[in-house]
Prior knowledge:
The protein folds into 2 domains: 2-136 and 278-328, 3-Layer(aba) Sandwich (D-Maltodextrin-Binding Protein, domain 2), CATH 3.40.190; 144-272 and 337-363, Periplasmic binding protein-like II (D-Maltodextrin-Binding Protein, domain 2).
Amino acid sequence: MIVKNALVASVSVAALAASTFTVSAQTDLAALYEAAKTEGQLTTIALPHDWCGYGAVIEAFKAKYPGITINELNPDAGSADEIEAIKANKGNTGPQAPDVIDVGLSFGPSAKAEGLIQPYKVSTWDTIPDSAKDAEGYWYGDYYGVLSFLVNTDLVSKVPTSWADLKGADYANAVALAGDPRAANQAIQGVYGAGLSTGAADAKAAADAGLAYFAELNKSGNFVPVIGKAASTAQGTTPIVVAWDYNALAWRDGFAGNPKAEVVVPSDSVVAGVYIQAISAFAPHPNAAKLWMEYLYSDEGQLGWLAGYCHPIRFNDLAAKGSIPQELLDKLPPAEAYAKAVFPTLDEQAAAKEVITGQWDAVVGANVQ
């Protein structure tokens, strides 16, 4: 446990109770733990336990830092819901106010511009790629994956290998997105990925093409307007779900062969997505929030995400140090499946998000819920 490290002698418990640690790459973790323990709680939001190994990560944090309870809000919320939760609880120090958020990359700059998040640089800050973090520490990439198809092969005999395949008659009442494309980043990227598969030249064109694609899928009866999850896939409500590979792989494992399932990275468009962490500017438990970030960006926290099939943002650093157990590497999909991966820029994501969220109802007309 971190408490074995000596506290700075001049820091009293009373002072810790009133303090809020500032941006620092040299934070004394023992002192931070004491301050967090005084707060006694961390409030998270939108962290399903089967997403990116979060269930195990949360339990590991609680075991490492006893005395801090975790209040988990709305595990199935989307990125937009997380931002709205901060806005709605600016003056609320109760259990409905999130301390931390885990959202799609495009939400970071906008949340910073609106004054909704606060800066903090973890002690491993220098090992996070510059392209995946705000220079001032307001937000920072945590993990990434690529869009894939989770297929219930007990119900789908012909496994689709591309976005184009999903238009076929074999997939009537079968295809769902893992979220509402009017709010959830995973679903927005699903629409964008479908658009890129058509050969669209830029982000707006890809968004328009993606909307047209799902309008066609909806009209043909192939699209199911239900938020796809592990349970809906297993039950057959959504036999095919477009989801990040780390979700799809974890769900497949959870089935334990019942039903049988496959995870496919589509051959005609491989969209990679980076998610980010940030601390609410109005966090009721700011020190617990910072301790949470320190844990997530430690080697232990990063490997926890990798065990949940996410590529942690510090993956290259961990690999260079030889810190990744071989059994974790062996469980990942083959590298060639990711060869054509495209990482949309912030500007591309913002342009696509505006089109998709704003025009889904008018163009596709499917109320996903």
